[in-house]
Amino acid sequence: QPLAAAAGKTLLFAEPPQTDQMRVILAPVFAVAHKSLLKKRADPFDCYDEETKGADYKGLHKQTKSGRVCIAWPEDSASFTFCRNPGGAEDQPFCYFAEGETEACAVPKCDPKAEDPEGWVAPAGSVTYKKPCPAPAEKKPVYKAWHEGKACRATEEIAEGQEVTTGTTDSGVGMTAKVADKRKRGAIWLAKLTHVDDADACMDECHATPGAKYMTFWAGKSGCPASQYGETKDGSAGNCGCFYECVEMKDELTTGDPTTYRRLY
């Protein structure tokens, strides 16, 4: 019974009785209790115990009091840069900030009276444990109708230095640019010509065509004029054209009820 009473709350925080017999009997009790309390205080708050000078500190701090960033310990791999106090050699956890140079870390002391925080529990319905969350759907390319009743040219016979319309700003103001060497006679704007069911399918085709920033979809049954754009690979009349740049066809040459779209991203 005296031994049971001695193992109560009082002796968990006080020194054991000053007798050799009691010291030998209760030493393991004190060691286990003290280690348990240290773990509960240190792990949640990432602090060090003042009594042990942080010899058992295993937190994640890696910056000195003056703000220097810790470097790897000499005897460890380059990935270990956390503050430690091996064997309690210093007054508190420290680290190396340069070769052979150490400094105390900005690790707070543990409050002996601190209470353990309660573990966070996710609200019901916010987490699923039955199967992983589905991958987000691939973002569909967005095209914006640019000009109705207009079609982009397949090629352009222009002279070097001539100004041509290359597009419009978001406010509708026309943009012009002088043609560079690569846009001299015989420049090719058409990247791909194919036949599809609708404008959405045409968008998918042009999205998969490298460098295509514009598309024209001809809604008419005859599609685009083969004399101006040629035929598709299978010999049919095309109704979907993907273009690197868009120089509009003249009105008198435009047929097939086209609409030109501009790729937003």
Q: What can you see in these coordinates?
A:
With 265 residues, this protein is α+β, with helices and mostly antiparallel strands. The chain is 18% helix and 19% strand. It has five helices and eleven strands, in the order H-H-H-E-E-E-E-E-E-E-E-H-E-H-E-E. The chain has helices spanning 2-6, 9-13, 20-45, 199-207, 226-229; strands at 94-98, 101-104, 143-148, 155-156, 163-168, 174-178, 187-188, 190-194, 214-218, 240-243, 258-263. The strands form four sheets. It has a five-stranded antiparallel sheet, with helices on one face. A hairpin with a 2-residue loop joins strand 1 (94-98) and strand 2 (101-104). It is elongated and about 90 Å long. The model is unreliable at 1-17, 32-42 and 164-185 (pLDDT under 50).
Summarize this, please?
Helices cover 18% and strands 19% of the residues.
Specify Rg, calculated over alpha carbons: 38 Å
Beta fraction: 15-25%
> What is the helix tally?
5
State the separation between the terminal residues, measured CA to CA: 80 Å
**Main sheet: strands, sense, barrel:** 5 strands, antiparallel
Coarse shape? elongated
The amount of helix comes to 10-25%
What would the average pLDDT be, to the nearest integer?
A: 74
Write the element-wise H/E pattern from the N-terminal end onward.
HHHEEEEEEEEHEHEE
Low-confidence runs of at least 5 consecutive residues = 1-17, 32-42, 164-185
Can you list the strand order of the major beta sheet? 3-11-9-10-8
Count all strands and give the number.
11
| Structural class by SSE content | alpha+beta
